[in-house]
Design a protein that fits this description.
Blueprint: H1 3-32
Length: 33
């Protein structure tokens, strides 16, 4: 495993985590609207 590959995996993981957080946030807003 190269360092570059580890950085890419970390960025993808963070992006996926943020995407899930945004989806939950929009769901929560629509539910309370």
């Amino acid at each position: 495993m190269s360092i570059c590959f580890g950085i890419v995996m970390a960025v993808v993981g963070i992006a996926a985590f943020l995407f899930v957080c945004v989806q939950i946030w929009f769901y929560w807003i629509n539910k309370n609207a």
